[in-house]
Structures are given as C-alpha cells and as structure tokens.
Amino acid sequence: MTNENPKKLLLHSCCAPCCGDIMLRLKEEGIEYTIFFYNPNIHPRKEYELRKQENIRYAEKLGVPFVDGDYDVKNWFDKAKGMEDEPERGIRCTMCFDMRFDVTAQYAKDHGFDAITSSLGISRWKNMDQINESGIRSASRFPGMIYWTLNWREGGGSSRMIELSKEENFYKQEYCGCAYSLRDTNDWRQQKGRQRIQLGKEFYGLEVE
Predict the structure, then answer these.
(1) Are 69 and 36 in contact (CB under 8 A)?
(2) Does 23 reside within a domain?
(3) Is residue 65, in this structure, part of any structural domain at all?
(4) Is residue 195 part of a domain?
(5) Is residue 186 assigned to a domain?
(6) Is residue 33 within 8 Å of 9, Cβ to Cβ?
(7) How far out from the chain centre does Cα 3 lie?
(8) What pLDDT tens digit does each residue of the chain (209 aa) get?
C-alpha cells in the first residue's frame, strides 16, 4: 500500500461488502486496525442490524477488533431536516459523511489511533472527493490525526469487493442506506416496473425465501 501506512488505524465501515476486501488487504499488509461501525443514517433498524451483523461476522472470521457505535438515529434525522429532497451526492450526503467521520475521529483520538479512513469510497456510486474532504475535515480537528486517503478502487478493488462478497455470501443491500435513498430507489424501481426493495431477502449468490 502507499501514502505511508499508519501505525494504528481506525477503519470506519459502512457495511461488510464495501469493507470486506479492504479488511483483507489491511490484514495481509500487517497493518494494525480496528473496525468502527457508526452509521445512524441506515434506515430502518432492521436494515441497520443486518448490515452490522454481517460486518461483525466477517471481523470475527479475520480476528479483527470491532467497535459498535451508537445508533443515534434521531440525531441523524435532526441534522437532515430541510435536506429531505436533496439528491444523492448532494449536501445531505456531505452532512452524513461529516457526522459519521466526526464521531470516528473523536473515538480515534480518545483511544490512541493515529489515523482514520473509511470503506465508503470503494463504491463507484460514491464521490471519492466528497468523502475524502469530509474525512480530512474531521481528522483535522485533532492535532496529529490524519485521514488516510488511499484509493481503495485502484488495482481492481471494486471488482474484488464483488468477488469477495459472493465468496462470503454477504447480505446484499440494494440502496445507500438512509430513509431518503430508500424512498428514491423505490420510486425509481416503480418507474421502471420493478419490484420494491424487500429488506433482508437478497444475499450475494443466494436469495433467501
């Protein structure tokens, strides 16, 4: 890896599929890291628990420490007021990244980590610059803390993410996570004549009845 490997890394994870290959690569590089799962944006609670439990399962398989952040969903909805109709990659997403990275950076500072990063940027649906700017902004609140801007998509990272998800049969979430992305995704599906999202049904490589 590049960008000067951190000594002790706190990896903010959004879900097992996005985080899985990153976790494996960090493990292979011998980088000391801990998973920090803080995603109060994920809606509803059932979806949140599905994503979290898949991440816990894989962390236990690799022997990686896992920190379960608070599901302070009311705080997230309060911050999102007035942004309900903003598009994906807009100011609501910036708020969401800032909120999650601020808490991640605070935990890192309080527990002796020298760097934070996130699995959010591996998805081709996300704006890498938007994510990195939020991460750098949050890390800069604490002297000596850095946000590791390594591009996880490089070298086939996005493709390996899908391959590993199939191998591990991870839960396959079908929208970004928040109530508004669920709404907008279902609206788009209905316009295309497709079935609405059914929570907890589809896994990579296997559909559960």
Answers:
(1) yes
(2) yes
(3) yes
(4) no
(5) no
(6) yes
(7) 21
(8) 556 788 899 999 999 999 999 999 999 999 999 999 999 999 999 999 999 999 999 999 999 999 999 999 999 999 999 999 999 999 999 999 999 999 999 999 999 999 999 999 887 778 999 999 999 999 999 999 999 998 888 888 788 889 999 999 999 999 999 999 999 999 999 999 999 999 988 888 765 44
Q: How many domains does the chain have?
A: 1
Q: Which of 19, 23, 22 is nearest to 38 (CA)?
A: 19
Which residues span the domain enclosing 77? 8-166
Query: Which residue matches tokens 């940027």?
Result: 121
Helix (H) or strand (E) holding 199: none
Cα-Cα-Cα-Cα dihedral sign, residues 101, 122, 129, 84: negative
What CATH number is associated with residue 129? 3.40.50.620
3-state SS record for 97-116: HHHHHHHHHHHHHHCCCCEE
Return all residues near 36 (Cβ < 8 A) that are at least 6 apart: 10, 11, 12, 13, 67, 69, 104, 107, 108, 116
